[in-house]
Amino acid sequence: MSSKRDQWSSKFGFIMASAGAAIGLGAIWKFPYVTGKSGGGAFFLIFVIFTVLIGLPMLISEFIIGRGAQKEAVTAYRKLAPNTWWTITGPLGVIGCFLLLSFYAVVGGWVLLYSLMAIVGKVIEKNASYPDLFAQITGTPWITLAGLAIFLLINIIVISFGIRNGIEKANKYMMPLLFIFFIILVVRALTLEGAMEGVVFFLNPDFSEITAESVLYALGQSFFALAVGFSCMVTYSSYLDKNVSIPSSAGSVVVMNIFVSLLAGLAIFPVVFAFGFEPAEGPGLLFMVLPAVFSQMPLGEVFLAIFLILFLFATLTSSFSLLEIIVSAFTESGKRSRKQVSWISGIVVFFAGIPAALSFSTLQKVTIFNKTVFDATDFLVSNVMLPLGCLLIALFISRKMSGQLVKEEFTLSNTLSPAWYQTYLFLMKWIVPITIVIVFLSTLGII
Question: Structure pTM?
């Protein structure tokens, strides 16, 4: 690896950063309410199976491409498949991350401001309810834009410090704290009267509640929960040392992701059932329902603060990977400084995010195909570009990339039997692509 390129200082640092990229809004915000709407325990079990059979091979594949090329996403595909149409995979990932960050940072700003205001006593309006607070943040243009700017500023500062001193250092502190905070919340939730009803709902599979739509939800959730599809993990693994086992590292990230989903369920559903709320409350579960519930508990404000800080950490660690893939694409040549590109990229993302940020206030009547700018961008990224990126990566690793290099990267620094590699190849050649196509067509409403 070129001495000019930054590198992770340790396997632990790489795993923490990769887990941070994977564990975000999907695991803590979307997973609980989708689980609540889709039957609880049975949904969780299906989610785990899909994560292991679909998400894990995809994560391994992105790691193999990145470390095999030792280049960030755009240059990696050019190096491994020069002068072919496969090279569009890298730029597609960068564009996808840019668009994703343009509205993800809007939500990140909501989380940031909501957390601060809820913790200090809802300063916008004295005695405002939590739904009112959330409505005020999303519906007031200058507040939303301020949140967007502050959230991106944090990202710019972290990314400008580089891989080892920026992303790795931030994740080394934030990810362990995230787990500690989660465990504190789980212990408190399980001590509430009536909490066991929530535990049973979450962990006791009731397949009578499962529908075809629930299965597709689980498939999509497991697939998109690991930050694969836009080559973020290609960029992250390009900084990885050769003495680290890729299957082992990917397995650690998947286990941590499943564990966080488990903790999220155990922290949320016992609280919801203990206070008589419905588990299928929808997206408002975290911003409106849970804070209202926490306010009814002894020391509820303390536990709400812990929960909101946890939520903010998860949102930030995921956004780091989105900005990093953009910055690394423009600094790989060494002609531009990381600090300069980080600031320029962050400012461009801010201006690109303004329409999405104002979709709930000034621009709420502006629609694209009957969707707000925020929802239209979300649909394009999540339902079109992300599945397409996943499919290209799956086909690239199984049909275009050098089989010798794939095997070398898979087997390096581990003692797994050849059967594991053959299983991985079979999944990537047949099961994963077919599954991606099914998810793609279902999200577009074709099947």
Answer: 0.93
